[in-house]
Amino acid sequence: MNLLFTIAQYTPPRMRGIQEHFHEGGGSLTADFLRIVGVVLGGMALAYIIFSVINRRRQQDTNSPHALFNEVVRQLPLSIPQRDLLRRIAAGLHLTHPTVLLLSPQIFNTYANRWMSSSRTANRLTRKRIDDVMNILFPKTDTAHP
Fold this sequence. Notes:
Blueprint: H1 2-9, H2 13-23, H3 29-62, H4 65-75, H5 80-92, H6 105-118, H7 124-137
Helix pairs in contact: 6-7
């Protein structure tokens, strides 16, 4: 039992310096402890705030139909002017879910025609650009081969 008591009271060499500091009146245990607790709590609060902001932004991005549309358009094999044309069509029509443009050639053509009729700057060149985008998005398949 004495051996166990001796082991329990053993102070490692690293801790002796701290012990001596407080025994000599070098500082108040309460003030130092409160400082350490304050720094730890402040760090935890800062980490929580940063995590909350990042998480809120992720949720907004994933729940936004326009963010989804922009991500899908970015992944398509279109040139930058063609992507911009798709974004202009979606914005001009005030679509709640602009990704609907990409569902089928019929839907795309319907919305493109609606946008062309309401746009002041649309002309034959614009129609050709829309047709080029449509051919990239919905390539025509040859059904003549068995």
